[in-house]
Structure formats: structure tokens, C-alpha cells
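Let us walk through a complete example step by step. Step one is to write down the protein sequence. Step two is to encode the small molecule, adenosine-5'-triphosphate, as a SMILES string so that its atoms and bonds are unambiguous. Step three, shown after the inputs, is the structure prediction itself.
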Amino acid sequence: MTMLLEIRGLHVTFHGRRGKEQALRGVDLAVASGESVAVVGESGSGKTTLLRASLGLVPTEGGSVCLFGTDLGALERDGRIRALRRCGMMPQDPYGAVPPTLSVRDAVMEPLLLVNGFRSKEISALKAESLLREWGLPDERIWGARVSRSLSGGQRQRVCGARAMALDPELFLADEPTSMQDASLRGEIVSVLESRVAEGMGLVLVTHDLILARRAARAGLVLYRGVVVERGPTRDLLDNPRHPYTAALARALPRLGKAILPPPGSLVRPGQGCPYAERCERADSSCMEPPVLREVSPGRFVACHKA
Ligand SMILES: Nc1ncnc2c1ncn2[C@@H]1O[C@H](COP(=O)(O)OP(=O)(O)OP(=O)(O)O)[C@@H](O)[C@H]1O
Ligand SMILES: [Mg+2]
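Step three: the predicted structure of the complex.
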């Protein structure tokens, strides 16, 4: 197994109009070939930032990101481009991700032509068409349509998936890849990801949905306000959550749309102690100390004084 992505102690802070936002606070993530890791957490927990940082697309404040064994920070521009070509990124927003003037087929062909040269047009078109079929867009009438017109959000999202897979990435980063799909297409997309992982692709799957995480990824980590609060096999995270936040996510599943967490309290101020303490029903004065991520059973790590 080759290590594709290794992130250690990653810190990312945004300095925006609302002041300082610590999006990631000491996150570790490792993905080897043929491995799938889900990143789960509520809105704003830092999931997209983690994917973007994996490709060097956000400035980091501390920690390291190694792609294919090389520290991204140490790579020159050409080396970085070569490393990024080995990765596919399916972004969360399918509207901004594909040039709107291109046709569906051209959008998927574009990366192939850029890398293999424009003489490869016929082969690239065939490959693009087969990818589009794989991603649930078999209707040839759609292939010639402009991406900006007459496509639904779900169709655009699948075009983004096919485009991100055009260069047979060794590492695939998928940010909520099924968020706009109906149930049957969700299953199809998960199957595409699963079959690629079986062939050796590494996958990082971002989702807020623990059931999807369990279906599509073997390992998982749970992010809460930029901190990993639990990690382990996704099966265990769903069936036997140890951290109170993971438990709240798991409990919320059958009741989508309902408020899932107790409202913020005042026990611990942000930045001090356990980040989850203010919403945690188990919190007490010991939670004023920040918990460390410790191994509670083989392969299972939890950052909670009470777990
Ligand atoms: N470019 C940016 N500038 C300033 N703040 C940012 C930027 N990108 C993200 N943030 C902040 O960082 C935090 C994490 O954002 P991120 O997009 O990673 O969350 P997320 O887990 O992907 O959420 P969602 O599920 O809603 O997509 C948020 O508080 C967000 O407001
Ligand atoms: Mg996001």
C-alpha cells in the first residue's frame, strides 16, 4: 500500500471580516492507496477546508501536508502541478466548478486534452463518454448541451464527478458528492467510488451523513469546529459512537431536518477546554481542560474526558 496523503497537525486560520476563524486545529489525516476515509461533521466544522488544504489551496498556519510522499510546501511549481494532476477533486459547489460555456462532453474532455494534447481528441471523447455513462449520464443528447444550460443541479454535480475522474486520479477528494442526488443515483455514485477504491484509488469523502460515510468509506473521522473529536472504522462510529457529538450525529439520522444538538451553553468559552463542552450533556468541570485524542480500543480514538 502506498501512502498518498499524509496530513499532520494541520492548523488553518482565516482572517476575514468577522475576525479570526480557526477552521482547523491540529488535524491529522492519512490515506493510502485502496483506502477510503470519510470526514464527517456539521456545517462549518472545517471539512471543505481540510480537502482544500490537502491540495495546498489554502494557506496553512502549522503542520504539514504530504502528497505522494513529498511535502507540498517543499515542492516547486512544476512538482506541485504534477502532484495535483494525480488527484481528483469533486467540489461541493457544482455551479462554479465547470466552465459554463463548455458542453458536457467538453467539460469532461478538457483535462484529458490539456494533459495528453489536442491530437488525442477522439480517444478523449470516447473516454469522456464512458465516464459520463459511469456517472449516470448515459443520454447522448445531454453530452452536447452547455453545462450552464438545461442541466439540473444533480446532473451538474455528476458532470463534476466525471471531470474530476478524467485523469484516473490516484487520490480522489469528494466534497458532499451526493448532496444533490436522489436515492437511486446516490447509490450509483457510491458504487462508482467503491469500484475505484477496489482498484486502488485513495478516497477522502466529505459528508455530514454518517450512513453515507459508513456505506462508502471504511475509516472515518469526526470534525467538530476544526478539531478531530473521534476517529475509527465508520461502522463503529455509527453503531457505537463514543464521543457525545458523534452520538448526537448518529441519533439525528432518522429525523433529518430536526435540531440535533442541545443549544450552546456557557460552561466553556470557545478556545478553552473541550470545544464541544458548551453543547454537551455530559460536560462537567473536567471539560475545562482540552481533551487529547486517545486510543480507547484498537484503532478507535476519542477526544473526550467522559468517553
Ligand atoms: N475563505 C474563507 N475565508 C474566511 N473564512 C472561511 C473561508 N473558508 C472557510 N471559512 C470558515 O472556516 C470554517 C470552516 O469552513 P468549511 O467550509 O471548511 O466548513 P464545512 O465543514 O465544509 O461546512 P459545510 O458543511 O457547510 O460545507 C467556517 O467557519 C467558515 O466560515
Ligand atoms: Mg463544505
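Step four is interpretation. The longest strand covers residues 3-16.
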